[in-house]
Fold each of these.
Amino acid sequence: MASEPLIQLEGITKTFGTGSAAFQALKGVDLTIDRGQFMAVMGPSGSGKSTTMNILGCLDVPTSGVFRFREVEVQELNRDQRSLLRRKYLGFVFQGFNLLSRTSAVENVELPLLYRGEAKAVRREAAMHALDQVGLAPWAMHTPAELSGGQQQRVAIARALVTDPDVLLADEPTGNLDTERSVEIMELMCELNAGGITVIMVTHEEEMAAYAKTVVHFRDGLVERIERGARSGTILDGTMKKGKG
Amino acid sequence: MLGATLLLALREIRRHLMRSILTTLGIVIGVAAVVTMVTFGNGVTSQVQDDIASLGSSNFIIWPKNDDRSSGRPFDLADVAAVEQQIAGVETAAGNIGSSATAFYNGQDLKTSIVGVNTNFLRARSLRIAEGRAFSSDEEIAGRNVCLLGDRVRQEIFLPGVSPIGEDMRLGDVSCTVIGVLETRGQSGGGEDLDDRVYLPLKTVQRRFRGTTDIDYFIVKYDSTYAGSAIRASLTRLLRERRILEAAEPNDFNIIDTAQINEAVSETTGTLTAMMAIIASISLFVGGVGIMNIMLVSVTERTREIGIRLAIGALASEVRLQFLTEAVVLCSLGGLVGLILAFGATYVVTEAMNVPFIFNPAINIISFLFAAVMGVVFGYYPARRASQLNPIDALRHE
């Protein structure tokens, strides 16, 4: 796949707190992510992977350094400008699904379109299409409580991709799922990636990371090493991992 | 977007229906109280004004001043005649003497008020004859046993559809002939039934019921082209002279201008209405605090939801609008229910107290808008708090 830099992190640092209580979570991260990439981010807790994801998701800003996304210097933007960036180009999938309870699947998926000011009919059609993509069209009217964990995560993925985002940010998307559901979700992510969406995924499971094209390892607030091409071997051998889980 | 926000707010309210009802109860009661108080107050004011207007304008009422030890020196008809004849600008002066008795007719009886007046008094007080005739001057001079019935007396002791004119009835020990019936007057501001009266010539009541030549009070009607203050000065001078008061002695009688009463009473009822409205608005304010409290709870409860919304790209202003809309919708619904409640309550109260129900669109609209503004005022802080949440922390919130 032709690659061009979509995201560039240069010398990113992030410090929480001030004075003696200050804690430096990121100590100068350099990372380039090309369009069409499927990147897994791994590392022990406290290694800075979640902080990096928050910065990549435009939810947080670095203390210093340059974060370039679509050639926009995100660290220069204010809160609302970052919101608009998220709204337009980013989709989020969380470990805890984070769906609105007591709200039907289709309405959850419609939510990002609501903030884009789309008309009701357009919203409904796009949301149904997204649910169809994740194989949940028949469950459109069910609330999260009536769906299994795997189904809820697929609703969350539908919500993330309904806006046709450039980047899908997934934070431990399979963390709350059993192996079988995890594999389904990973295969779905691979499909989406094949369709052109850049996927960045935090995980601590080697099997899940194996689906990615690139695996970035974090340690002590720095990028420790980057492995490439891990994906090619695993996609042919998807059944093997069920046994391991 | 606004439509969707409105729908969302309604859904959120429906979701916590019981809580929403209890929360808005403060606003409902506040609005209902304000509107009921003001509408009822307006009704009372208007009724009192009507009562006073029925006294006639350009009127003085004069009666002896009572002190602690004795009732004041009374007036008599000679005083009335002197006022009428000697003061320029006076059109009529008419005395009044009251008593009470039980009226009997055809086995029916009714305890009622007896009023002794002459025809000029009826005219000055705009008491109109509905049926029959007023007293003739012969009946007045001779003090004959003839009477005019108030509407209630007629209804209580005469059969409907049968004319009481020409019938003989008994008032206590006195027998008298009914010569007319007065138009209905309703209740006075003091709650007296003005129709529960029997009118007889002044002299008849003096002689047969009170055994005196005194009168209780008299009214003076003057030409409205004259200044009330000039008439009052002449009246005071004449009456002091007739009662032989030294220059140093104070007046031993009262003179009151009906226009003055009107003003004083309107002012009093107006002040009372305003006071009741202010007290009622305090409850509206307290209701607003309740709204703020529950909105803050709601923001805390829905922290995660707010995090999700912010993460998928909601602007701070959009989250703020959502919570503000919820508060305003809650308050507006409360206001609406309050108005309906007020309408019912005012209807019942005015009906029970015989006060006219004057629907006042202004106070209804103002109260409703005030309730909505309460939503903005008390919803703003919680909404602002929601919009300023950090999405990362909000998403982590359990």
Amino acid sequence: MLARYGKLGVVAVLLAAAASVPLFTDQQYLLNVLTMIFLFSALGIAWNFIGGYAAQLSLGHAVFLAIGAYTTIILFTRYHVTPLVGMFVGAVLAVAASVIIGYPCFRLRGPYFTLSTIAFGEILRILLLHYGNFTGGANGLNIPYRGEQPWNLQFDSKASYYWIMLAVLVLFYVLGKVITTSRIGMYLQAIRDDQDAAESLGVKTGNVKLTALMISAGLTGLLGAIYACIIGFVDPGSVASTTMSTQIALVAIVGGVGTLGGPIVGAAVVTGLTEVTNAWLGATRTGTSLTLYGALLMIIVLTRPAGLISLVDLIKWPKKSEKPTEPATEVTSR
Amino acid sequence: MMVQSIINGLMIGGIYALVAVGLTLIFGVMGIVNFAQGELLMVGMFLTYLLNQWLGLGIYPLFFVVTPLCFLIGYGIFRGLINRVIGKPDIYQILLTLGLSIFLINGAIMIWGPDYHSIPNTIKQAAWNFGGFSIPVARVIAFCVAAAMVWALNIVINKTEMGRAMRATAESREIATLLGINPRRTFAIAFAIGIALAGAAGLLMSPLFYVYPHVGQLFSNTAFVVVVLGGMGDVYGAMIGGLLIGIVEALSSVYLAMDLAQLGVFVIFILVLFLRPNGLFGRRTA
């Protein structure tokens, strides 16, 4: 019990520290980087429902992100619908898309599933470029800034976005905890460990995977809407590209597939890496951060497939025997 | 118009076939989907470009330098990376080759910048005209060399000791080992051949396309489509699939819209995946 309260206390202190960052600094750059880390952590958590817990490697999550982002921006700029409503419309549309994609895709396994998610991503990108009258084509769409309007999620200072994104991340984390310890979470872990065995024990694997994808897509759609509000601009190259899909997956994989803390570690490392190399080398060597990214991914796969968060297990925790059991975070894909 | 676009489609389809045959050979022999195949095509193009600059050799004589070089690169990649994930879950193999692809694209951007380069040549504009149709010479050469390479590969697979070892290893690694075949060596050679084909495709494309770090992505998605269309691991299927996709792309760019050329390809891909996941011809071969 003591250990449990101790752990909660650590989390509370960390959260309080994270929440108070904007009080001590008004460096917009730093707040921006941290906001992006939170955003990608949340994206990794959302991806993990299908990619981690169900072990269905999706490289098409940009589809859901783009649907959320484009829906929100189009509703707001053309029909004056506040993003607070638009984000939920976007999430519903993303869930609808996930059913259309998931229903046929889950008959496929392994590389076939991954390939079909890539194909859906490419189809959406091509359509966004083709129907330029509606979507802005390659030029994209932007939200004209009209001053501080909290009901439209428009703020003067970066700090507001920082707090919103931190709150969303905490919400997603808690949601992830609830879902992974629920019945469906158990089913997902059974599927990950052995799909055929789970099936033979009466788990309707198709339905379970589809539910996981719907949750994942809805959450990703919401984040797409928030992304659009923070950046104020979307175009197919940024939100609907295979590169974005890969980045979402990488955050979870580098940190630790199928863990709740993994995506946060992954987002911090990956975003941190990008910012450090950009600050260090400037714009002269544009590929450097992504080159390191690719190398990091290969090293992780070859040496620590459970992700960077598994390094934490190497630390000798005191009172290990009293550690409470936490199925969601302890069972990694080793 | 229709006949002209079918001719154009067939010519580009030959190159798609060459990239896809390499991909399908790797999948058929060791069960690995190489997400970096397009990037090795890019490496082949860059090697052609650089060797052309340094040695002043023409594009086609460089074929005899670039293809063996890519074979060695492929052998090295297998020994250093792929070897370690053989027999591991798909997800590791996909992620490893995906990491390699990201590494190669951005490594190229880091070294040579994101700019477009072109290899000075006279063959780009040359075309044969007959009966009102015009066929660019570089495309004809690319098509013929691609066809010859696939034909040669087929002989290697079906008639040589190495090919027999590949087919046996693809069938069952354990039994092949019992028969005295070294599976790792067989895998390494099959992988190297697959990469050599990608490199050769890059060389053949270099008079027709700009050389830049992202060029592989133009071909890699299409190559996946072709491989699935032909049946994963089916070399003949990939050849026919490549030609078909070339035609579909050419026709949809004429009859749908220029920027929808790829859409037709992906829609066919999804349909084949769902209706005939073993490929149009439904055979399962190595």
